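User: For my dataset I need records formatted as: sequence, then structure tokens, nothing else. Please produce one.
Assistant:
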Amino acid sequence: MKQVNVIKKIFILIFVSTVVFVNSGCESKSDKVPAEKIAKVYVDLLVTKELHRNNPDTLDVLEKDIFARYGIDSSYYKKTLESFKDDKAKWDEFFKIAKSYLDSLRKDLTKQNSVQNKKKN
């Protein structure tokens, strides 16, 4: 009887250890946000700040919306940006992605303006 209890306890210990190990591995993978996502947040925040710099209440709401849309919080965003600064290759990749994303936003805006101008005429 005692031997069965010991085996159960060992099994439970192994099971719990496995679950903890697997979860800790998953957390470290989910903590790594791709540079592309951080770059898009960066650009969206810059554009939003520029458009709403005179209305801090709106700016706060929109910044929170941006972080929610990308599924990260502001402290994680800042921490990730700081880590990019320590690695020149990551920093260069980050700005390359950010520039590309900003260019695509400009093209989309140009297309929208063109379509609107055609509708007006």
